[in-house]
Amino acid sequence: MSFDSGEGLTEKTTPFDTFAQIIEGKAEIVIDQIPHLLESGQGIIIPAHSPNFIKPNGRFKMILTTIKSGYE
User: Which of 47, 58, 60, 71 places its Cα 20 to 30 Å from the Cα of 6?
Assistant: First the structure.
């Protein structure tokens, strides 16, 4: 995913853990109302069922990977 200044993702929850990795730029990822500022090369696990949203800090690119461990 790539975002321009002022864009982002609205608050959501998912039934699976998600790994978010910033590949270019900076973004603030808010998980359960706790902000985490990430820069290029950094990543974070967003736990399942945790409300979260992403606020860009200028232009940025990221990869979101859903971890469906134990899912059948």
Answer: 47
